[in-house]
Amino acid sequence: MRRVIRALGWLPATLAGLLALTLLFLFTTEAGLASLWSLLRDRLPEGVSVQRVEGRLIGPLELHGVDIDQPGLQMTADRLVLDWRPSRLAVAKVQIAQLGAEGVDIELRGPAPPPAADPDTALSLDFRAPITLVIEDAFIENFTLRSSPGAEPLVINAATMAGVWDRGSLEISELTVRSPLTGHLQAQAFALLEHNAVRIQTLNLASPDSELSTQLQGQIRQTLGRLNLDLEGQWNALRWPLTSQPQVRSPSGRFHVEGHLAALEASLKADLLSRGRPATLQAQATVQREQIDARIAWDTLAWPLEAALGDVQLRLQSGAITAKGPVDAVRLQAQTAVLPAEFKPVELRLNGVGNPQGLTLDALRLD
Fold it and tell me: What is the 3-state secondary structure (H, E, C) of the chain?
């Protein structure tokens, strides 16, 4: 009897050891993953299929031929890969060595999402991470997104990213994107995260294929239910479109936005090129207690701005537009000289009252 009791005393330790060996086999070996996948393959949710799974659960892990067909989403992916470092969990870190996707095609279906709530009250600015996340290498290749069936797709040829997100900050040390819309772009960013604020220390964007560079600094803070902005940015060698014959080129410029939706100040100064000659566009606007006071002024401009787009069709001499008054009845005034390509110059003066529904002209004078 004593022998039986003594033998049974070893049973919990034996079972624990067998369980540990089984988990070690499943998580750390390719054979363990294959055994687990053989049990799960036919038990995936309806509309989800995976052709092949390779690797180990502790990484690297690869999924091939992923197909998801749900009422609101259709997605296919040629290859998904995950490689992480489980040992870093001991120091409260999730460290991703590699996270990637190849040949991804996403189509959104179903009704449009409901309209967003008032941003001043609905948006939370607490982006602090509960645990440190380190991404050494994330990539995507041949990505296509359609917002609805038959819609024009957003295409990304390739993108890579590396960074760290923790309770006090977010750092993107490397972000590169190649797409037909943007060309080749590179970005770096560092922001401090607080309970109710995001402080942008640096946000830089540049193109290795041109002299394009942009910088953004400032903060976004939520105080007493209101979203307060204090952002300042500048750019060099900006053009649009980014990848084809430009319609607009701006050698340099800057902007500043400060305040909240009910009391906002904004300014903009953009240096432009008009048929190769320098010109300036300036704007200032103030919103205070549902009153608007804004002014836009420009130097002489010719349209099209670029000679490569054809002959001059219209010239505008230096002029300005002002807008003052309550937001539901803003009084507009404009004065400039219009020089059509085939007619004599025309002096244009405009007075009117505008609101979000339309514009009512009090006077339109052409001399």
Answer: CHHHHHHHHCHHHHHHHHHHHHHHHHHHCHHHHHHHHHHHHHHCCCCEEEEEEEECCCCCEEEEEEEEEECCEEEEEEEEEEEECHHHHHHCEEEEEEEEEEEEEEEECCCCCCCCCCHHHHCCCCCCCCCEEEEEEEEEEEEEEECCCCCCCEEEEEEEEEEEECCCEEEEEEEEEEECCCEEEEEEEEEEECCCEEEEEEEEEECCCCCCEEEEEEEEEEECCEEEEEEEEEEEEEEECCCCCCCEEEEEEEEEEEEECCEEEEEEEEEEEECCEEEEEEEEEEEECCEEEEEEEECCEEECCCHHHCCCCEEECCEEEEEEEECCCEEEEEEEEEEECCCCCEEEEEEEEEECCEEEEEEEEEC
Token pair for 329: 């009845």
pLDDT at 148 over 70: yes
Answer whether 59's CB lies under 8 Å from 83's CB: yes
Q: Which of 90-99, 143-152, 166-175, 312-321 is least confident?
A: 312-321
pLDDT digits (tens, 9 = 90+) for 106-122: 999 876 555 555 544 45
> C-alpha dihedral over 108, 110, 114, 115, to 10 degrees?
60
pTM: 0.80
What was the pLDDT predicted at 120? 45
Q: 260: which strand partners?
A: 263
CA 79 from centroid of its chain's CA atoms = 24
Radius of gyration for the alpha carbons in the chain, expressed in angstroms and rounded? 30
For 241-271, the pLDDT digits (tens) are 988 889 999 999 999 999 987 899 999 999 9
The Cα–Cα gap between 252 and 235 comes to 5
Q: Which of 1-10, 106-115, 355-364 has the lowest mean pLDDT?
A: 1-10
> In whole angstroms, what is the distance from residue 73 CA to residue 87 CA?
35
Given a contact cutoff of 8 angstroms between Cβ atoms, the answer to whether 280 and 295 are in contact is no
Q: Which residue has the tokens 């054979």?
A: 31
